[in-house]
Amino acid sequence: MREKFGIGSRLLLSTAALVAISIPIASGHTNAPQSQSAQTAAKLSFEVASIKEWVDGKGPAGMVTVGIERSGDRIISRCASLKALLSYAYHLTRSVPVTGVPEWGKAGCGGTYQNTFAIEATVPAGTTDEQARQMMQTLLADRFKLVAHWETKDMPIFALVIGKTGFKLNPSDPAKDAPIPPHSIGCPPEDPACHNVVAGSGPISVLASSLSISAGRPVIDQTGLAGNYNLNLQWAGDTTADSPLPSLPAALREKFGLELKPQVGPVSTLVIDHVEKPSPN
pLDDT tens digit string along 65-97? Predict the structure, then answer.
């Protein structure tokens, strides 16, 4: 199965980042959030919101937190692309395809910072995480003129299933497990053939989402396993002939007792019908 995986880059994923964007995955398809029309009908909005596009060729000064973070009653992004804002607003994981994103919406942070945004917003006291994400949907609709809908499409996927040898991990407790020492299981810089997932303690759906990039198609958790497990894995790239590391299928089988089965199945896809760059404040 080695040739079935197109791996473009290493994966180094923190538990916090994964939890921040994860959604449940089950029964061979992703569980999409409720429809946009139902969410916007509630008219959940930030109390105050500021958007600044980095258009002058210079990004923010000092330390930059890429993506979205919440601190008390504030939602903050020093540098986020449209795609990052969509991921936060709609609880997207790497298993959820998004179509219709314009090229300017896929920008990265660094270099000129062009087509990235700084956002600061405040939420009322007691606002839940899900409510804050719905407020971001409202902001995208109001300021980016976003129109989007969900479609379920049949497409090639990999089903993550329990292998013939049985599942090999014992449950873990994120609150009690010792933290992972920095670089203890990460790929050494002298080994460019190494690829890895460093997710700490989390549900199997997090592993499935993480592997979607490496597999080149959505990976859907069909293990039926509940609870949390230590999800840390290393494997060799597909084009490497002399690495001491196993291939991705072998690593999954030997360490976790899991397999990737190629299938065609229904996948919830977020379709962007219309979007514009935001007007300045």
Answer: 667 888 889 999 888 999 999 999 998 888 888
Record the tokens describing residue 65, joined without a space: 């937190």
Is residue 34 within 8 Å of 90, Cβ to Cβ?
no
Q: Look up residue 167 and give its two tokens.
A: 């599942």
Q: Are 245 and 36 in contact (CB under 8 A)?
A: no
What is the distance between the alpha carbons of residues 200 and 207, in angstroms, rounded to a whole number? 10
Instruction: Please give the model's pTM, rounded to 2 decimal places.
Output: 0.68
- Three-state SS string over the chain comes to CHHHCCCCCCCCCCHHHHHHHCCCEECCEECCCCCHHHHHHCCCCCCEEEEEECCCCCCCCCCCCECCEEECCEEEEEEECHHHHHHHHCCCCCCCCEECCCHHHHCCCCCCCCCCEEEEEECCCCCCHHHHHHHHHHHHHHHCCCEEEEEEEEEEEEEEEECCCCCCCCCECCCCCCCCCCCCCCCCCCCCCEEEEEEEEECHHHHHHHHHHHHCCCEEECCCCCCEEEEEEEEECCCCCCCCCCCHHHHHHHHHCEEEEEEEEEEEEEEEEECCCCCCC
Residues contacting residue 139 through CB under 8 Å, at least 6 positions apart: 45, 46, 49, 51, 89, 119, 121
Mean pLDDT of the chain: 79
Q: Distance (Å, rounded) from C-alpha 129 to C-alpha 120? A: 16
Number of alpha carbons in the 13 Å side-chain half-sphere of residue 48: 4
